[in-house]
Amino acid sequence: MITPHWIENGQGDHGLVFLHGVSGGADGALDLLPRLALPGWRALAWDMPGYGASEPFEAGTSEGMGAYADALVELLDAAGLERAVLVGHSMGGMVALQTAAQHPGRVAGLVLACCTPAFGASAGPLQQAFLAERLGPLDEGAGMRELAIDLIPGMVGPGGDPELVHDAVGLMARVPPDSYRHALRAVVGFDQRAALARIPVPALAIAGTHDKVSAPLVVRRMAERLPAGVYREIDAGHLAPFEEPALFAALVREFVAGLDHILVI
Fold first, then answer.
1. Strands 6-9 and 41-46, sheet pairing
2. Is residue 147 helix, strand or coil?
3. Residue 198 DSSP one-character state
4. pTM to 2 decimals?
5. Taking the CB of residue 72, how many other CB atoms lie within 10 A of it?
6. Hey, how many other C-beta atoms are within 10 angstroms of the C-beta on 37?
7. Segment 132-167, tens digit of pLDDT
């Protein structure tokens, strides 16, 4: 497997990894990483396979979320991190949960932002409607920028910063269509609800009050099912980490500071 590309900020023996959503990339976390890097910690952000500077999956690779979890472990190995705190946004939170279930020894803590523990069966009507909305325009000849212009404005809360929307559209526009399709198929088939009770590591679940993609009630219930889960809410939309970066980073830093007793090397 090809090791994914990552960027990082900070120095130390401890590590956290920011995992972006289906419309993102490592570059979207450039301003966020310095806020997340506590003294003694490295803050990394990856380009998941097929995104940014990361090579796509090899032909024939499973379209399930497990392939992304395996790729993340490859990154941890390359970065010299035996265990890490995973900070996942949207699909990135799903990758984090999958990794905690699939490779429990590699995860020291979880921050799950604006994500859910399941999407459901890929053949279900909700899933098919979601795919039609996200992939239909591409099938009809639209480009990723056109799709982003249509989708991104609805992902921010009331009074969303136009510059944030502009930057998020630009980031999504750079996602290769094939990589986007692969990621969405992993999302609609994702379901780790049964694993929640078996994930013992400290977990912080963060919802956006105005999130129309990952409803706050679902995020709260996910936190309640995690043995060491804590719930927090930000007055923002689905792009909460970027709409309110100072508050988001403060919540993450507070959470990470409480993990000093966990050795992460």
1. antiparallel
2. helix
3. G
4. 0.95
5. 29
6. 23
7. 778 878 888 889 999 999 999 999 999 889 999 999
